[in-house]
Design brief:
Helix content is 50%, strand content 9%. It has 356 residues and is α/β, with parallel strands linked by helices. It has two domains: 68 residues, Nicotinate-nucleotide-dimethylbenzimidazole phosphoribosyltransferase (CobT), small domain (5,6-Dimethylbenzimidazole Phosphoribosyltransferase, Chain: A, domain 1); 269 residues, Nicotinate-nucleotide-dimethylbenzimidazole phosphoribosyltransferase (CobT), large domain (Rossmann fold). Strands 3-2-1-4-5-6 form a six-stranded parallel sheet, with helices on both faces. 58% of the residues are buried.
């Protein structure tokens, strides 16, 4: 079976979140020993977890796993970032060695870290946390031609889905967090967000690693050129990924779809994950029911993507690092939301007179 057919089959296996369980969770919130609505958005997060688990009292996701999808980008040749391509491989090796920000936060919330190499141009050291599924050593320059072909995009999607299945199945993960590493990857992210939302390039292209005004102007022109060249069709998500996406964007899309198929919540990180989530939604609209926005990246495209997805960010800390940081920081909120529904006493159980 061709990889593109496998992606379609995967997307078709996703079922909607359980509406009856969500309704029962909302009713349960009304009976708990607190004023109705007093926990704000935490209550709705719990309701959504109930819909994913199919239980009004959802299990607490206490075995989180962060997947850092890594790839390189041909568009870097256009000067969209001051950082050299070699940094991608160096940072991926740093993740494996345990010396990066993602490792520190993963340890804080008890999450295991996996690095998925779908397109790093350099070699990575053997490591138990490395999953090598290299489709190709980076994409082509999306401003001069397609970033990759459709089968490459589909292979990367399936690499992400397969790792999600492994982590959930034999690994016992009950919460997935998406992360990314790829110098230059906010340029294809801007392309994807513009293609899927209709926002012009200038509204969704940001400073990435902290570029100056001149480089931002160049980067925006590169995004505009790519969109004009390819005229991506949002109704053909694999085609959009192939034309203007990155291998790690496609892999994150697969992680999301793999989590949804297995009935496991997926916490999104920043703008790269948000762009990938738009592709996942285009492939499988019901997959949004399994997504949570960990935070609002300071990249302008993040807000546009989350608005289109209908997801409210849990945190807003002005971050733009990637790696899965915003998703990891939001893990305790999801755990608390589930614990409230599953462990908090009702008025009857506590012998407290509730309001009528």
């Amino acid at each position: 079976m061709a990889f593109e057919d496998r992606v379609r089959e995967l997307a078709g296996d996703i079922i909607p979140a359980d509406g009856e369980a969500m309704a029962a969770a909302r009713e349960r919130h009304l009976s708990l020993t607190k004023p109705p609505g007093s926990l704000g958005r935490v209550e709705e997060i719990g309701v959504r977890l109930a819909g994913i688990s199919g239980e009004a009292m959802p299990p607490v996701p206490d075995s989180p796993a962060v997947v850092v999808c890594a790839g390189d980008h041909g568009v870097l040749a256009q000067g969209v970032s001051p950082w050299p391509r070699e940094v991608t491989a160096s940072m991926a090796a740093n993740f494996l060695a345990g010396g990066a920000a993602v490792n520190a936060l993963a340890k804080t919330v008890g999450a295991r870290v996996s690095v998925l190499d779908v397109g790093v141009a350099g070699a990575l050291p053997d490591h138990p946390s490395l999953r090598s599924a290299k489709v190709r050593p980076g994409t082509d320059d999306l401003s001069e031609g397609p970033a990759m072909d459709r089968e490459d995009a589909a292979r990367a999607v399936m690499a992400g889905a397969n790792l999600a299945e492994e982590l959930i199945g034999s690994g016992g993960a009950d919460l997935l967090i998406t992360g990314d590493m790829g110098i230059g990857n906010t340029t294809p992210a801007a392309c994807l967000i513009s293609a899927f939302t209709g926002h012009p390039a200038a509204e969704v292209t940001g400073r990435g690693t902290g570029i100056d005004d001149e480089t931002l102007s160049l980067k925006t022109r590169v995004v505009e050129k790519a969109l004009e060249l390819h005229a991506p069709d949002a109704g053909d998500p694999l085609g959009v990924l192939a034309a203007v996406g990155g291998l790690e964007h496609a892999a994150i899309c697969g992680v999301i779809l793999g989590g949804a198929v297995s009935g496991v919540p997926v916490l999104l990180d920043g703008v790269v994950s948000n762009a990938a989530a738009l592709a996942a939604r285009a492939l499988a609209p019901e997959s949004v029911g399994y997504m949570f926005a960990g935070h609002l990246s300071s990249e302008p495209g993040a807000g546009a993507a989350l608005e289109a997805l209908g997801l409210d960010p849990i945190l807003d800390l002005g971050m733009r690092l990637g790696e899965g940081m915003g998703g990891l920081l939001a893990v305790p909120v999801l755990q608390g939301a589930a614990r409230v529904l599953s462990e908090m006493a009702t008025f009857d159980e506590a012998g407290v007179a509730g309001s009528e």
